[in-house]
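Lab notebook, bench 4. Still working through the backlog of constructs that have no structural model yet. Next entry is a single chain of 290 residues. Request: give me the structure tokens for it.
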Amino acid sequence: MSWLTNYVKPKLRKVLNPKDTPDNLWHKCKNCGQMIFQKEFIANQYVCAHCDHHDRVPPKDRFDNLFDNGTYDLIALPSVNQDPLKFRDTKRYSERLKAARNTTGDEDAIKVAVGKIGGVTTVVAIQNFFFMGGSMGMAVGEGFIAGAKEALKIKAPFVILTASGGARMQEGILSLMQMPRTTVAIQMLRDAGLPYIVVLTDPTTGGVSASYAMLGDLHISEPGAMIGFAGKRVIEQTIREKLPERFQTAEYLQEHGMVDLVVHRHELKEKLGSVLAMLMGGRTRKKAAE
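Model written out:
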């Protein structure tokens, strides 16, 4: 009986119920529900071909699509105390970090690289929403500051693509301290006359939207991105009023002066290249003359 159960039955099951497709062959759009061939979805920069919904993008694909010829160099980021508060809820914080690293292959929720966009050498930081919701802890703060320092060092513009649920609760006040620290780094860029451009992607909320995400010289957003501090439901319960249907969307914020441009992902590289060339044009010409 054991032989039949352990060997014959699994073999018969495999023959009679073959798995026709791998799990990751198709992607279901979160907006319209249409099934999209995964390879085509990635080739289309994670944009739904049916409804144009802009899905979230891993940092590597972002870098590949933004930099000229997909060529860039990652910047080594400082290491931080892994679990300063020895925090535990239903799981230990150290366990959550380990799980996020195994899932994403990244050390934390930010990556920084330097390369050329439209021929302009640029430092780009990208927040990874797949890593604990892109939450801002000490590692994200240190990564942002490292990117700003690199931009100052090579006299290049600094661009960040935000995607975050806010400050990382497992680090308490230490995560909130990153708000003023990143603000100081932005002021250093301003003092040096270097552009700081923010690209807001879905979602950008909480302490991130309350700090470096809203301090750019130029704010660009992807279509339909949710941008705000507290959630719509929380605000409605607090003020006891119904908010507009498109409240906290990129288009709503553009209409109310908080976002400068809403740019389709397929046009983002070209638009950034044009803006960077314009902002750095005088500096480039001066350097050439010297």
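Notes after review: The CA atoms of residues 226 and 249 lie 5 Å apart. Strands lie at 26-28, 35-37, 72-74, 110-117, 120-127, 158-164, 196-204, 218-221, 261-262. Flag for follow-up if needed.
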